[in-house]
Amino acid sequence: MKILVATEKPFAAQAVNEMKKVIADSGNEMILLEKGTKDDLIKAVADADGLIVRSDIVDKAVMDAAPRLKVVVRAGAGYDNIDLATATEKGICVMNTPGQNSNAVAELVFGMLVMMVRNQYDGTTGTELKGKSLGIHAYGQVGRNVARIAKGFGMRVSALDPFVKDEVMIEEGIVPMHSVEELYSQNDIVSLHIPATPATKKSVNKALVSLLPKKGILINTARKEVIDEESLAEALAERTDIKYIADIKPDIADKLAKIAPGRVFFTPKKMGAQTAEANINAGIAAARQVVDNLATGWNKFQVNK
Ligand code: 3PG
Questions:
Q1: How far apart (Å, rounded) are the C-alpha atoms in residues 183 and 176?
Q2: What are 160's strand-pairing partners?
Q3: What are the tens digits of pLDDT across the range 66-104?
Q4: Is the distance from the beta carbon of residue 55 to the nearest atom of ligand 1 less than 6 Å?
Q5: Residues 133-178: pLDDT tens digits?
Q6: What does the alpha-carbon distance between residue 56 and residue 33 come to, in Å, rounded to a whole number?
């Protein structure tokens, strides 16, 4: 059977080679489409039985063009790029590869934080992370890795997650928070790890960001969609002490940079999971999951059950 690996943002070569091996060893064939457009994906998916993507959009148009498609694996965590309703309608199993790239994202959080508290290395005096409080907005796989690293920096760590019991957080040395208002008002830095869902879209707004204490920082390595960007712009204009860092360019990046020069930083492309290790972990996991699903219907990480 044919397994299409379609990644607009290519995996490291080693990850691609190892995925090819997993797929070939299972008796299947891997087709690679890198840096393709949506049209390229629609053409390439025509005879695919399995599909592996990253943040590439897999919507109805893609699935309509793929009559043989049985399984889509998002090599990574967030699956807001996949039209789950259409997949379910068509009997296509959609899975993600939870945890495989979370350390990479967590490390980038600290890479960008250090850069910003040192004023982007402009020669002026910055601050340290040690002793500062960090609030983790969603204590999932990435959030837990962020907490682990934050402790190494000597930060005080708290988290908000309605799906994680207080006892679990306390046992892991994390102070449980019980509302977004509490999280944003009591932490010098808030690190966002909520998924983009209808409930979370635009949920981080001026009212919340304005609760940050003096010189507060919001760092977003999740999704730009969870931010109400226009209202964030207002918050940054009014509170000239706060900073916003994001691993993916906001739609109004230029406006934000103009309003808050030196207080915002954006990666040009989503870079959180862009390490060789994360590519290898997520790529191999995705290849195995597709192969197993095609062979036996294995669906442990199905997200459209
Ligand atoms: C994820 O959801 O796994 C991360 O945001 C990484 O996305 P990427 O594979 O597009 O880099």
A1: 9
A2: 137, 177
A3: 999 999 999 999 999 999 999 999 999 999 999 999 999
A4: yes
A5: 999 999 999 999 999 999 999 999 999 999 999 999 999 999 999 9
A6: 11
Of 267, 193, 260, whose CA–CA distance to 233 is shortest?
260
- Pull the structure tokens for residue 164: 């994680």
Q: Which atom of ligand 1 is nearest to the CA of 96?
A: 3
Pocket test for ligand 1, best of 8, 54, 146 (most atoms within 8 A of CB): 54
101 lines ligand 1 (CB under 6 A): yes
Question: Has this prediction a pTM greater than 0.90?
Answer: yes
pLDDT tens figures, 256-289: 999 999 999 999 999 999 999 999 999 999 999 9
Report which protein residue has its CA nearest ligand 1's atom 11. 273
Q: Is ligand 1 within 6 A of the CB of residue 246?
A: no
Looking at the DSSP assignment, which residues form a beta bridge with residue 6? 33, 53
With tokens 């406006």, the residue in question is 255
Residue type, 11: F
Do 133 and 187 meet the contact criterion of CB atoms below 8 Å apart? yes
Q: Confirm or reject: Cβ of 273 under 6 Å from ligand 1.
A: yes
On whether the CB atoms of residues 49 and 43 are closer than 8 A, the answer is: no
Cα separation values, 88 from 5, 66, 69, 295, Å: 21, 14, 12, 19
Q: What percent of the chain has pLDDT over 70?
A: 100
In angstroms and rounded to an integer, the radius of gyration of the C-alpha atoms of the chain is: 20
Supply the pLDDT for residue 305: 87
- DSSP letter assigned to residue 274: -
| Ligand 1 centroid distance, CA of 191 (Å) | 16
Query: pLDDT tens digits, residue range 228-247?
Result: 999 999 999 999 999 999 99
- Provide the residue type at 65 as one letter: A
User: From the CB of 74, is ligand 1 less than 6 Å away?
Assistant: no
Position 22 pLDDT exceeds 90? yes
- C-beta separation of 66 from 2 below 8 A: no
Atom of ligand 1 nearest to the CA of 221: 5
